[in-house]
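seq:
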Amino acid sequence: MSGFRLYTKENSDSTVVSNIFLDYYMPTANGSYVKVYLYLLRCLGSSDMELSIPFFADRLENTESDILRALHYWEKVGLLELSTNSSGEITNICLCNPKPLSTSPVTGHVLPKSAPDLLHSTQDVTTSDIALASGNRTVSHCKNYSPEQLAKFTQDKSLQNLLTVIESYMERPLKPGDIQLVVFLCQDLHFSDELVMYLFEYCISRGKHHCNYIETVAIGWKEEGITTVEQAEQASNRYNRDFNAVSKAFGLGRMPAAMEQKFIQKWIREFGFDTPILVEACNRTILQIKKPDFKYADSILEKWHKNGVHTLADIKALDNTYKQSKQNKSSTPQTKNKFNSYSQRNYSAKDYSDLEKRLVEKNFRKS
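struct:
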């Protein structure tokens, strides 16, 4: 990838960060995007730098895709002007002065006029963070409500109070994406205020503040039919217990990864197995193939499911049936082969005497 030239139409004697940027643009932006913008300002004062996307990615310890997303984000909100060549590679970046902003009709926070899409969260979450996601979603993702829709929804006093509580949980002013999510939970998923508050409390207690993570957990709860805080507590405790139990039985020393979690969810939801049965399948996997293998454990549990196993006693009974069948098979007489399948003839003393006479006569004739 080729390099690009960075310049500004303004004075670049020093690294200066606009107060407008700090007050209005920065609070609604992803933290990694802010890093990219600030380092662009820093590079303006160093004409000897050879700038490129790989350089920024290495310098900021980020991926090239992340750098490109940040640049396009700042272009959307009007802080950058990007020029590209015929191959689509960035050749020039022009930094523009922050422009006056309009206020959000929902919270009073200000948003760039050129970026209404900021009302939707831009933060991503890795698949390993999704502990309670459903394997096959039947509930749609969070909608991107218009400012007019949000203004109408937030006229409700109950929702206003809920947003205030969520803001105290987050320990920061709510971002547009947070408000979008809360409205989605109440209007589309029909969560009660108590369930929404517990959802945010639960996710934040796990160190997860991203809207995408909270949304994923919420959709998982909706698909499981969870409608109360009590049900959510039971589901959360169940998954944590089972995940930890499987990890310990397999000696993973970590929580199961996303694909591994799908197996556990299958064993819980589809097969309906309790923790002791999951642990037993993991133990047998280790004893049989000497390593943790979710596919092998899945084959064991699928067999038990088909045989109507519900308890450890059922597994023991199934084992005994198998052993008895094996013993019966080993004690059954072998089937006769072609040689001894014919009926045997019994010879008398007279038969042997006649046979001896015939042999003597035959030899006599030859001589």
